[in-house]
Write a structure and sequence with these properties.
Largest sheet of chain B: none
Largest interface: A-B, 80 and 83 residues
CATH class of chain B: Mainly Alpha
Strand order of the largest sheet of chain A: 1-2
Structural class of chain A: mainly alpha
Helix content of chain A: over 70%
Shape of chain A: globular
CATH architecture of chain B: Orthogonal Bundle
Helix content of chain B: over 70%
Shape of chain B: globular
Radius of gyration of chain A: 23 Å
CATH superfamily of chain A: MetI-like
Oligomer: heterodimer
Number of helices of chain B: 12
Low-confidence stretches of chain A: 274-279
């Protein structure tokens, strides 16, 4: 630790100024604008926004998809993480590679694969028609199901990776100790493994939930204008109608929901841990 | 239990990797429109990708942007991470929150805010807007990864160098920088990939003639239903695979993700 404050400040100042002027200032102005109506500061834009049934539907759909995608990613991801920790180190390394690789690939490319699979002349419909499950091609692309599938595939690795590291950080002897003392597997899982990996669940859950709420590419490519989510609605309002008021309101909603999720879930993890120490 | 786990992992693999196999095959189609399975295999759409002028221009913009924004983010981010780690910076925690703030704001909002309150009022060119947005987005990554490398580097060797007569700057360039080199390279690779694949930030910042590759793909597929986007997607996926494999061999990239 060096004492010279002036040097430290000089080193950090360029980055801080760049972010403050090139990022915080414009974003702050955008957010402030949503509260400044011709009649003064008010929430009028928000009440108008939520009075529109279309906007309500998009808001609720975004929440619904966020919650279901997060739930599926965490439950299936937990089972997968448990299965991976049971493998030898070489196989485990390969699986971690399989999880990390998609994160490096363009989300547009990843999502386009679902267009090929779910489209009218896609893999799924070829199978459905061949097997005689339906007389005409199913309409899956541009439905909420397609968006759901795309989001789960996009964010699944973000749920598994923190769970995996949480499971690997379990103290080595607690599970065998509980087993020796006669606890059943189910009890070991509920009372030992699950509470000790809560932080992995919180980190993974936050990443997936916030990622789904603020998704653009997946709803744009697999949902289209029929299955709008908040970000695709924002883009549509600006590009189709030059409606900067709605865009500002959606921006505030997205930022508030992202930050609230981060803060609430982190507090949940910390609070539970402190509570456990008292018990 | 064990066999149940194997079945689950096989399904997970299929779900995560299957779509890539599908997109590669679809991109090798010989047909006129996107269909799976394709009527036959050929390289015609792969060749088409290199002929489409808008793809070539957008690829150039994305490469330039990825390299430029990542380099500037590192030039700003490395000293910031170093100062926050080694010096007593006044209001250090607040400053750290400022430089890592761009990571929590959804990209589409960054793009809209820059467009409305910086580019339009000041009349800045499109490319500069993209560059500002991407650099702001990458600074938090640079600071975070370099901070992690600095945490693993003991302060004593630096202090020893200074006691033995090195200047502060000399100790930084000859002791610290070589030791955090792999962290900086990892930050560069991750930063470049993040910028190259970025969509939401670029949505509002792209303009006529200056578009990034993923944005160009999105607008191309709106009006065309031929397999060229599938071919391009397959090429990008293979390119990422090559980068990941090489980076993993060289520096164990997975530690930094």
């Amino acid at each position: 630790m060096f004492e010279k404050r002036s040097i430290g400040l000089a080193l950090v100042l360029p980055a801080a100024l760049f972010v403050a002027l090139g990022f915080l200032l414009p974003v702050g102005l955008l957010l402030a604008e949503s509260f400044r109506t011709p009649a003064g500061w008010s929430l009028a834009y928000f009440t108008t926004f939520f009075a529109d049934p279309l906007n309500q539907a998009v808001f609720l759909r975004t929440l619904r998809l966020g919650l279901t995608v997060t739930a599926v990613c965490l439950v299936v991801g937990y089972a997968a993480a448990l299965a991976i920790t049971g493998l030898g180190p070489a196989a485990r390394g390969r699986f971690v590679g399989v999880l990390i690789l998609p994160l490096m690939i363009s989300p547009v490319a990843r999502t386009y694969a679902w267009v090929v699979i779910l489209g009218r002349t896609g893999l799924l419909n070829v199978l459905v028609l061949k097997l005689g499950l339906s007389d005409e091609p199913l309409r899956i692309l541009f439905t909420e199901t397609a968006v759901f599938l795309g989001l789960v595939q996009l964010f699944f690795p973000l749920a598994v990776l923190p769970l995996l590291s949480a499971l690997e950080n379990l103290p080595a002897d607690v599970v065998p100790a509980a087993r020796v003392l006669g606890a059943s597997w189910l009890r070991v899982f509920w009372q030992i493994i699950l509470p000790l990996t809560r932080e992995g669940l919180v980190v993974g859950g936050t990443l997936v939930f916030v990622g789904s709420l603020t998704a653009y590419i997946t709803p744009a490519m697999l949902g289209g204008s029929k299955v709008l989510m908040l970000e695709t609605l924002l883009y549509q309002r600006v590009s189709v109608a030059n409606d900067f008021v709605s865009a500002g309101v959606i921006s505030v909603i997205l930022i508030v929901m992202s930050i609230a999720t981060n803060v609430l879930l982190r507090r949940l993890a910390a609070g539970r841990r402190a509570g456990g120490a008292h018990a | 239990m064990r066999s149940l786990g194997s079945v689950l992992l096989a399904l997970v693999m299929l779900f995560l990797l299957g779509p890539f196999v599908v997109i590669v095959i679809a991109g090798l189609s010989s047909g006129e429109t996107l269909a799976f399975p394709p009527p036959g295999l050929s390289l015609r759409w792969v060749a088409k990708v290199f002929e489409v002028e808008s793809f070539r221009a957008a690829f150039g913009v994305s490469m330039l942007l990825g390299v430029g924004a990542t380099l500037v983010a590192l030039v700003l981010g490395v000293p910031a991470a170093y100062a926050l780690d080694r010096y007593k910076v006044p209001g250090g925690e607040a400053v750290r929150s400022i430089v890592t703030a761009p990571i929590i704001v959804p990209g589409i909002i960054v793009g809209l805010a820059l467009l409305r309150f910086l580019l339009v009022p000041l009349g800045l060119p499109v490319m500069l807007g993209l560059f500002l947005g991407h650099t702001a987005l990458l600074i938090p990554y640079a600071v975070r990864i370099v901070s992690a490398s600095l945490n693993n580097l003991r302060v004593d060797i630096e202090e020893a160098a200074i006691l033995l007569g090195a200047s502060r700057a000399g100790a930084f360039f000859r002791i610290v920088l070589p030791n955090i080199r792999s962290g900086i390279v990892a930050a560069f690779i991750l930063g470049f990939v993040t910028s190259f694949n970025q969509v939401p930030v670029s949505l509002f910042l792209s303009g006529p003639g200056v578009t990034t590759l993923p944005i160009e793909m999105l607008s191309y597929m709106e009006f065309n239903y031929d397999p060229s986007v599938a071919a391009l997607s397959a090429l990008l996926a293979l390119l990422s695979l090559a980068v990941v494999v090489v980076a993993e061999r060289l520096l164990g990239l997975s530690r930094y993700v």
